[in-house]
Amino acid sequence: METIFARASAQGKAGVSLIRLSGPHAFDCAAQMVGFIPKPRVATLANVLGSDQQIIDQAIVVCFSAPHSFTGEDIVEFHVHGSTAVVSKLLKNINKNENTRIAEPGEFTRRALENGKMDLAQVEGLADLIDAETEAQRTQAQRVLSGELGRRADEWRSWLIRASALLEATLDFADEDVPVDVTPEVRSLLSKTRHNLDREAAGVTSAERLREGFEVAIIGAPNVGKSTLLNTLAGREAAITSDIAGTTRDVIEVRMDLSGFPVTFLDTAGLRNAVDAIEKIGIDRAVARAKSADMIVLLTQDGIVPPGAVLRPDDIAIKSKCDLDPGSDGVSGLTGAGIDGLVDKITDVLAGRMMKDNVATRERHQIALLRASEYLGVAIGVLEQGPDHYELVAEELRSAISALDSLIGRVDVEVVLDEIFSSFCLGK
Amino acid sequence: MKHFDVIVVGGGHAGCEAAAAAARLGAKTALITLRQADLGTMSCNPAIGGLGKGHLVREVDALDGIMGTAADQAGIQFRLLNRKKGPAVQGPRAQTDRDLYRSAIQKLISAQENLQVIFGEAVDLIGSETKVNGVRLRDNSEITATSVVLTTGTFLRGVIHIGDVSRPGGRMGDDPSVKLAERIDQFGLKLARLKTGTPPRLDGRTINWDNLEKQPGDPDPVLFSFMSNGVSADQVPCAITHTNDKTHEIIRQNLERSAMYGGHIDGIGPRYCPSIEDKIVRFADKPSHQIFLEPEGLTTNTVYPNGISTSLPEAVQEDYVHSIVGLEHAKILQPGYAIEYDFVDPRALDAKLAVKGVDQLFLAGQINGTTGYEEASAQGLVAGLNAAALALERPEITFSRSDSYIGVMVDDLISRGVTEPYRMFTSRAEFRLSLRADNADQRLTPRGIELGCVTPNRQKTFENKQQRLEDLTNHLKSDTYTPTQLSKAGIRVTQDGSRRTLFQVLAFADVSFKDLCTLDARLEAADEEISEQVARDALYSNYITRQQKDIEAIKRDEAQQIPEGFDYNSCEGLSAELKSKLIAARPRNLRQAQKVEGMTPAAIMLVLARLRQQKPKKTA
């Protein structure tokens, strides 16, 4: 096993930069560079020396001994001053050690996965946490990273295994002192599990939107103030505004953090029965994007819904250019009036769609959960036909358990392999 | 010096089946055992088959093995367990007459071409540390062979315990094999200890049968062999009695005098077949335990009380037996005892049951950590066929989890090892809906025909049956019916407008073959055996289609061979611990590698990546 190293903090000048080494030679390497092996888990101030015995930098060095580390291997971390020259000199020096090599992207995490420090869902959670831009994304990723999905799957699995054991006992020990009819307990275990699976699966759609960002389409008749509203929300000139109707032709996207939610606002072409061929294409696009968006904000001045606009239950219709009509409710992109209220309304709707403690966050999770649930549904149905058909119930259960296992990457190697191959660059 | 293609050491269930299988394949075979009388001895309970076990017997029979035929000839009470449940979990079982069984086996062995029985004690193996060339007998004579199959059962360093009295012994009245155990030590094989127990044997004339509930056999006995036509021996019932408070009290007070509880035994016993001491300690709140009183034969008075195996001193055995209803005056003919013995960690074997790293040596039966006649016999078949294949320079003969319980068992043994005596259960077979006792011939006899280990008579019978099965199945699949037509015939079906074949209709749990006759009168002429079998195939057809994907995944992983001497150290990113485990386990394919303890999907993927990387180089 090679010892790998890499800079763990971001590129560029910084107050402190972090260089991490992981593998069987991490401690040797540290001893070579600081003259001793710092006591594990104690931040130790030390002079880091180059091969020429000149001081590269004074650093805080922290050692973690296997298996109690992120990767499960021996780890050494150098916290050095975040100068480009210091970092590059240090990296060059570590590289001179014949037992080390620079880590590939994601390799520390991969080792953590291989050494059983994380399950597949946790790796996904870590990736999400690193990518998290907003508060809501951070909390969600943190829940996944904590291994909560694995723990829940383990619990569901244990219920199903119990149910399965009850059934198998009646099948394999028919001649012995075992209960003949275990239907009531099995039924309750299966229903309980199924309820949990369904609930978790239902939260995935919004959890996945949270990971990837919500889309809110601003639509309305031409010249109703959509682009002005977008620019005010964005705090910059994202869209060209003019009082010429039909200025916006294509869909303009602006991504922002809306009270912790990642939201992409879509500014769209004004909806009217256009004659201009290019404007028509723009309107068609506006209608299509509005349809696929998570939410629509319809701006109107007169309360009339323009052609092509279809509002769904959670969508918001609001009066625009309210500055022209003092005292009226609504929003004004020009003065900023009513903007805060609109933002609150949007985030309320989005927050309402989030399941508070959801830990299944990806389509892959949802597919596994629903597949397991489906098998359980059939199992519950067959169970009602009584002990004579237990072998079929057991079969459905087996399938459900294996679907659950694919959730955290345990049994079906092929599926997990595909997943891992697509996430990490392996096999060269 | 005598030379054979195959030598089988041991004349128990594994040994007899191994020798017969090797000889059927055409290898010149020697079976070495102490005495004529050892062949076909049932040293534990007088019964064959059961759930999972019955499946194994059927599979051995489908390849023309001898256990099923002998059991049918010796059976004195046949019951199909789980008769009311689905066919996948039904298992044929029979009480057998010990003498009839023994003489049936002896007749089959002596009638087998290419097979010579040699009486003597094999005390040592000859050859080197990496290759076995034959055996040395007690009189120092040597017999050489290309393949040697060891089936020494519980004889390796066997110790018998009755209460606090213990003495070396492989079975009541026999000496253990110490020298052989030492030889096996030299091969560097990992040995561990297991224990198993037997109940006291009772004199049936001293049992008060009148007060006991009788358990008769099935009125229409289901036999083991696909070639048998009916029972041969007279049929007798068993009886059932129970332990009670008084029994439990006697045992509890004498627990420290039990070999197992007195600290005399270190071996691990089976959880599913506990001694009466175990039952009373572990299930303390259970007021009573069931005992089956099984006659050991038609001409003997010996009765086997199944459910009270023990290692208590003889006097205590007397006391507790007499506390049981019906056994108040029962005379103990032979006290119960526990036996402790060495077994070889079966992870040292490959799918042929050959020892990895020691050429030409095969192990089968209890020596591999299993329990039960049926498990022994099935392993004997695998080892015998492969020992012969090796000698005859033919390709190896292995079984998969997807084609047989034999494959499930071998795979479990060689990839997981054992922590308690291994017994077959239907729940061990993930594809049990397709691996049924009723279709063992459909699954395996074609393979046997191809291998040439099946007699022409069986081949003819099988092909005839198979033809009729196919004809009827095709007939049922030929026409389709609307939901309305089906409803008119009294079949409950959703009115979804889709037309169904009668085969599809037969998959409904509440439809029997007879129900179909109203739709197609020609079906009334169908043979009952054939129509019942087609109905069983149809019942699970939907599930079997679904399982096909899993079966293909297994086959794919099994097909991904790992070459001998594959360099795990070259697997970038594999932890040192897993590397050493893989190097020790020497998995032969990806499927077996997955089962190495501590294996993670990520680690498997690294191995696979390395294998794929190496492949193009070979072809280039």
Strand content of chain A: 15-25%
Shape of chain B: globular
Give me the number of helical elements of chain A.
Answer: 14
The number of helical segments of chain B is 20
Task: Give the helices and strands of chain A as they follow along the chain.
Answer: EEHEEEHEHHHHHHEHEEHEEHHHH
Got a strand count of chain A?
Answer: 11
Percent in helix of chain A: 40-55%
CATH architecture tag of the largest domain in chain B:
3-Layer(bba) Sandwich
How many whole angstroms does the radius of gyration of chain B measure?
A: 26 Å
CATH architecture of the largest domain in chain A: 3-Layer(aba) Sandwich
| CATH domain fold name of the largest domain in chain B | FAD/NAD(P)-binding domain
Strands side by side in the biggest sheet of chain A: 3-4-5-2-1-6
Task: Please count the beta strands of chain B (DSSP E, at least 2 residues each).
Answer: 22
| CATH homologous superfamily caption of the largest domain in chain B | FAD/NAD(P)-binding domain
Q: How much helix, percentage-wise, in residues of chain B?
A: 25-40%
Task: Tell me the Rg of chain A in angstroms.
Answer: 29 Å
What's the N-to-C terminus distance of chain B?
Answer: 49 Å
- Can you tell me the number of structural domains of chain B? 4
Structural class of chain A: alpha/beta
- The low-confidence runs of chain B, each spanning 5 or more residues with pLDDT under 50, are 616-620
Looking at CATH, which topology of the largest domain in chain A would you report?
Rossmann fold
